[in-house]
Design goal:
Structural class: mainly beta
Number of helices: 1
Helix content: 10-25%
Strand order of the largest sheet: 1-2-3-6-7-10-11-12
Number of strands: 12
Radius of gyration: 23 Å
């Protein structure tokens, strides 16, 4: 029995050593900001229905986690999840210049991406492209405008939208299994009636195993 146990331990040690050397898996935790460009236009104004049509640019913070599998030394796939917090914006009624300050909706994004790395040294730049879904979180909120009128910021009827993202970044390996990551992404959410464009920048740490 002791010989069998010893043999099993030897096999596990060899397997774990080979697994560690392969370094095919990676987990990354990160945080950053998401700069959302202005969307919709004054042409969408409808009195009594869409009094504040334009959502100005804003930059909420976000955080997330990503899991990657590298099937070659250069190429891999990544499952990325990001949670975006709300931020304050001021909406304006184009007919009388009335304004109201609101908190944007929190939302999350889940994407499946293809990654290509250019280097095998300590600094490894990469490109990333993929797509997924974006979902809004929250409920209708009641506000009062500058002129004293009631206004309800409503949650969209469709809670989920498709998105695509493309970007680049760089990973710095402090040692073969751990390092830091800087990531930039252009994100396009296919929303109705207007698409939403944002630029996402995050920094974090990763573990490769």
């Amino acid at each position: 029995m002791k010989k069998v146990s010893f043999f099993v331990l030897i096999l596990l040690f060899i397997a774990s050593s080979n697994f560690a050397q392969a370094q095919k898996f990676q987990v990354c935790i990160f945080s950053g900001v998401n700069h959302v460009l202005e969307y919709s236009s004054e042409d969408d104004y409808v009195m009594g229905e869409n009094d504040f049509p334009v959502t100005p640019a804003h930059t909420p913070t976000n955080f997330g986690v990503a899991f990657a599998y590298f099937f070659t030394k250069d190429m891999g796939i990544e499952l990325d999840g990001r949670y975006h917090l709300s931020s304050k914006v001021t909406l304006q009624d184009p007919s009388d210049q009335d304004t109201v300050e609101i908190s944007t909706l929190k939302h999350f994004a889940i994407t499946l991406n293809f990654i290509y790395q250019f280097s095998k040294g300590k600094f490894r730049p990469y490109l990333v492209i993929g797509g997924g879904i974006d979902g809004v979180l929250g409920k209708d909120e009641a506000y009062t405008t500058k002129y004293g009128y009631p206004f309800t910021y409503e949650v969209p009827e469709e809670a989920f939208d498709f998105l695509t993202n493309i970007g680049a970044g760089i990973q710095y390996f402090i040692n073969p299994n751990f390092g830091a990551r800087l990531d930039f992404r252009y994100v396009l959410i296919f929303d109705d009636p207007n698409n939403v464009i944002s630029f996402n920048v995050v920094v974090g740490g990763f573990l490769r195993f």
